[in-house]
Design brief:
globular; about 200 residues; alpha/beta; four-stranded mixed beta sheet
């Protein structure tokens, strides 16, 4: 493939990944009517790693990443089994960004009066009408779910509720402010991705 072809392929991949991120945000706004959304956010102390969204309900804080993967069955990542898609090795499932986010952001969440629940990777299939099965896949620091498993994962984390929690805007505001303070101390380009302190109440 020519260099132009590689650039076009990479640009298309970035475009589709951005669509998955936006679709994830829209879906979560629908499913979490009493939560507050912050993000996307670079992970403090990392070299450009980020999370796509931070969701707050009551004192619970959830980190979310959207993934756009080829259809297939993904498995492994447990008991030393290398993550795979079908029979092929699948390197993206070995990334430790989720665990890094937990390690680096846990103190910010605690200082804000919140509790960091286990993060979620939400997987979208890259081809309409097909599926990406992740039931038997494990990644460091997060749970991986397909769209049909999302509601159950949110319920287990205490996010799907019928009533707002008065602690939600307080914890969200404190966390957003803490992340903005961290960002202002960083000598990096802030025009790309970084913490967003503005709250986006759903519903």
């Amino acid at each position: 493939m020519t260099s132009t072809g590689w650039r076009e392929t990479a640009a298309r991949g970035q475009y589709l990944a951005a669509r998955a991120e936006r679709a994830t945000e829209d879906l979560l706004h629908e499913q979490l009517p009493h939560a507050v959304a912050l993000g996307p956010c670079t992970i403090p102390g990392s070299r450009g790693a980020d999370v796509d969204g931070i969701w707050v309900h009551g004192g619970r804080v959830l980190l979310v990443d959207a993934k756009l993967w080829e259809p297939g069955t993904y498995w492994g990542g447990w008991l030393g089994v290398t993550p795979r898609r079908g029979t092929e090795m699948f390197a993206p499932a070995t990334h430790r960004h989720a665990q890094l986010a937990v390690d680096r952001m846990g103190s910010y969440v605690r200082q804000s009066g919140g509790v960091l629940v286990r993060p979620l990777w939400i997987v979208w299939p890259s081809k309409a009408g097909e599926s990406a099965s992740v039931r038997w896949l494990s990644v460091p620091g997060a749970d991986v779910v397909s769209l049909d498993g999302l509601e159950g994962a949110l319920t287990r984390r205490g996010f799907v509720t019928d009533a707002p929690d008065p602690a939600t805007p307080i914890v969200a505001a404190r966390l957003g402010l803490a992340l903005e303070r961290w960002l202002r101390r960083q000598p990096v380009d802030r025009t790309t991705r970084g913490p967003i302190a503005q709250m986006h109440p759903t519903g």
